[in-house]
UniProtKB/TrEMBL annotation:
It comes from Rhizophora mucronata. This is Pentatricopeptide repeat-containing protein. Keywords: Repeat. Coiled coil: none annotated. InterPro entries: BIR6-like, PPR_rpt, TPR-like_helical_dom_sf. GO terms for biological process: RNA splicing.
């Protein structure tokens, strides 16, 4: 891939999608491919990340997205606010509370706290999945973090 003929963004997206839908998620391969794309100056746009995450949804393992997001962070990329919003909604609306909590903790640990839209999407997702108790817990957690004295 170091020659004059560089793959298109569509090819990169397609390859990353194929990696995540294999029987066994190979994070090493995903990370290597991602680093190669970064090396040839193809940035991981929200549309690419969204396509990869939709692949997880298509095979029913969206909860695995946290593993890929950790690899992305290790490669120096940051999940945008819009993607945080989509991810929190998808996880919470699919009744994947543990994965949603892990995502929130991962974002906070990386210094990339969720904004109000992502918190609202998290709460809305819990409501869509009829987990009102979880939605209330999120409101309390967010309220206690944002409370000003």
């Amino acid at each position: 891939m170091a020659g004059a003929n560089k793959p298109s963004v569509l090819c990169c997206t397609s390859l990353l999608k194929k990696i995540v839908v294999r029987k066994e998620l190979d994070l090493g391969l995903f990370s290597r491919v991602l680093r190669i794309f970064i090396g040839i100056e193809i940035t991981l746009a929200d549309s690419m990340l969204d396509a990869v995450l939709k692949s997880f949804s298509s095979i029913g393992i969206f909860g695995e997205c946290n593993k890929v997001l950790k690899e992305i962070k290790q490669d120096g990329l940051v999940v945008s606010s819009d993607m945080q919003t989509k991810i929190t909604f998808r996880l919470s609306s699919a009744c994947q509370k543990d994965e949603a909590d892990e995502f929130v903790e991962h974002m906070e640990a990386s210094g990339n706290n969720l904004d109000y839209k992502a918190w609202a999407s998290l709460i809305q997702g819990h409501c869509v999945s009829r987990n009102v108790e979880e939605a209330l817990d999120c409101i309390q957690k967010n309220g206690s973090k944002r409370r000003r004295f």
